[in-house]
Write a structure and sequence with these properties.
This protein is of the alpha+beta class. It is about 25% helix and about 35% strand.
Length: about 180
């Protein structure tokens, strides 16, 4: 298998007509999203937007790239929250965010291993990262990964309330109108 450079990846992205991710020289085509995936992502964006305006945060949807330099990875998370001034890796036509505070991945059976084994540990290497949420699209299950004193911790929710960056969220609200 051929290894690509980051510059080749950006050129491929400009001409391919679809979205792909980059991990250590490989270009990975992204699968199509399901109805559940889109509904869950839209609900999360809406819920976080309520807090974003009062806290002066930026909420990015899935068309904004995120670059993890330590892992040589560029991804399109389903949702990113930026709680500070944005930093971008600028590359001619390409803007890629470097410093999100929260990243959300809504995963399916097809993407779960990649999201857990590759993306999650990569995201947690970013110094500005406060929380990574893994949200299942096939059952009510949300995992919150966060750092406390440079230690990684995890909470799991299948019902009830939880908080991310002092935003109160509810599992039932996130999964309302979702059919498994």
């Amino acid at each position: 298998m051929r290894n690509f450079t980051l510059a080749e990846y950006f050129q491929y992205e400009r001409t391919s007509g679809g979205k792909s991710e980059f991990f250590q020289g490989e270009i990975l085509t992204m699968p199509n999203n399901s109805a559940n995936h889109n509904l869950i992502t839209a609900k999360l964006i809406s819920l976080f937007e309520k807090y974003a305006a009062e806290k002066n945060w930026l909420v990015y949807a899935s068309d904004m790239r995120f670059f993890v330099p330590l892992c040589l990875m560029t991804t399109y998370p389903d949702l990113m929250i930026l709680a500070e001034e944005p930093q971008y890796q600028e590359n001619e036509e390409d803007y890629v965010l470097l410093n999100p505070s929260v990243v959300v991945e809504v995963y399916s059976n097809a993407t779960e291993i990649y999201d857990r084994a590759i993306k999650l540990p990569s995201y947690l290497t970013v110094s500005t990262m406060k929380t990574v949420m893994l949200v299942c699209e096939t059952e009510k299950h949300i995992e919150i990964y966060y750092k406390i004193d440079n230690e990684h911790c995890c909470d799991s929710f299948t019902t009830g309330d939880f908080e991310v960056l002092n935003c109160k969220l509810n599992v039932e609200q996130i999964y309302s109108q979702i059919h498994f």
